């Protein structure tokens, strides 16, 4: 019984860490993955470096993007920060 009393604060701390830190990070990662999978030709994106680009082609692990008129580059899917909302 005494051992249970000593472990209870640790169990409580682990539960708090899960709900405050781990679970929100998992949900955010899931939303980001879904956003990457939904990107298609013509979508505007913002890269982790801050560049705004237009998706030209979706490939296995990369996007072909256009960053300026007739300037096409390849971008790793992991380097996409978010989809640009035109309305905002």
Question: Can you offer a commentary on this structure?
Answer:
There is one protein chain. The chain is an alpha+beta fold and 88 residues long. It folds into 2 domains: 1-38; 40-88, Roll (SH3 type barrels), CATH 2.30.30. It is built from 1 helix and 5 strands, in the order H-E-E-E-E-E. It has one helix spanning 2-38; strands at 44-47, 52-58, 62-68, 71-76, 80-83. A 5-stranded antiparallel sheet has the order 4-3-2-1-5, covered by helices on one side. The longest helix is centred in the N-terminal third of the chain and has 37 residues, at 2-38. The mean pLDDT is 92.
Throw out a few tags for this protein.
88 residues, five-stranded antiparallel beta sheet, SH3 type barrels, single chain, 2 domains, 1 helix, rod-shaped, alpha+beta
Q: Rg, please?
A: 20 Å
* Shape summary: rod-shaped
Largest sheet: 5 strands, antiparallel
Annotation field: number of helices: 1
Overall tally of structural domains: 2
- CATH class identity of the largest domain: Mainly Beta
Q: Strand order across the biggest sheet?
A: 4-3-2-1-5
Percent in strands: 25-35%
Q: Give the H and E element order.
A: HEEEEE
Number of strands: 5
Helix content range of the residues, please? Answer: 40-55%
